[in-house]
Design brief:
With about 110 residues, the protein is α+β, with helices and mostly antiparallel strands. The longest helix is centred in the first third of the chain and has 17 residues. Helices cover about 20% and strands about 50% of the residues. It has 2 helices and 7 strands; from the N terminus they run H-H-E-E-E-E-E-E-E.
């Protein structure tokens, strides 16, 4: 019994040492950022890139926002200072009504 156990352990050890390591690849969720443009009154605007990591990110610009544009790559949810909520699936424009400062955003892979 000792020799069969030793033989099995030797076979397993040999198989483990011959296996090629698998390279670790970063998830697209960690690498990609959604480019967003926030539009306010009088042609005022600002840009922000948000990672597609499904994490809440603060928006620090106090501009009152009437619309948000994305050229795609992620689904994003926006939260306004007065309680507004908006969802932008992948690409396009979402309108904020009534216009208000946006305080946070969360994006995920589309």
């Amino acid at each position: 019994m000792k020799s069969s156990t030793l033989s099995i352990m030797t076979t397993i050890l040999a198989a483990l040492t011959q296996a090629a390591p698998t390279p670790v690849q970063a998830s697209p969720r960690q690498d990609f950022k959604v480019a967003l443009t926030f539009f306010g009154a009088a042609r005022a605007s600002f840009d922000m890139e948000v990672p597609t990591d499904d994490t809440l990110h603060l928006i620090t610009n106090p501009l009152s926002i009437s619309s948000i544009y994305s050229n795609g790559g992620g689904d994003c949810s926006f939260f306004g200072v007065n309680g507004s909520g908006a969802f932008l699936p992948d690409s396009g424009t979402v309108f904020i009504s009534p216009p208000q400062t946006q305080v946070s955003v969360v994006c995920d892979v589309a």
